[in-house]
Design a protein that fits this description.
This protein has 152 residues and is mainly α. It has 6 helices and no strands. Helix 4 runs antiparallel to helix 5. The longest helix has 26 residues.
Length: 152
């Protein structure tokens, strides 16, 4: 939905951020493919598959970001962050379940469940609103300023 909304806003010139539209499209495509072709993959390797999907998605978004040479809007920043969190969690779950063959639920599984859902929801809201909804960009900028002051 965020892709169609951003495309509509771009077409009627409400927003002029092409990177946001491309980012929304790449996210849409990634989630569409991973949801609809889920059965094609070995179910024991699902976390590795999702890990690889998120890596490819991050690379595609970074490629478009490089091509357009524009500053990342808040929506794009949150997508980078959300996909990075998801990628780490998918990798950890693959290690835990497939590599280490753990079958008993523990805190990582709860962190995974909450983390992926929160990251996905935050990405969707950020893509629709294109705002710093959690204040993370403001926090990042403040930390950069404080770090520069401390080093000088």
């Amino acid at each position: 939905m965020s892709f169609f909304l951003n495309l509509f806003f771009r077409c009627i010139s409400v927003k002029k951020d092409n990177l946001l539209v491309l980012c929304s499209f790449v996210i849409f495509l990634s989630y569409f493919i991973s949801d609809h072709f889920y059965e094609l993959f070995d179910k024991t390797e699902v976390y590795k598959t999702w890990f690889l999907y998120d890596i490819v998605t991050l690379v595609l978004i970074a490629f478009f970001h490089f091509l357009l040479r524009t500053k990342a809007s808040p929506g794009v920043f949150y997508v980078y962050l959300g996909l990075s969190i998801n990628t780490i969690l998918f990798g950890l779950m693959h290690l835990d379940i497939v590599i280490f063959e753990n079958k008993e639920q523990w805190i990582l599984w709860d962190i995974y469940t909450a983390g992926v859902n929160i990251a996905d929801f935050t990405m969707i809201v950020a893509l629709i609103t294109d705002r710093d909804i959690l204040g993370l960009i403001k926090l990042k900028n403040q930390l950069q300023i404080n770090t520069k002051k401390a080093l000088n």
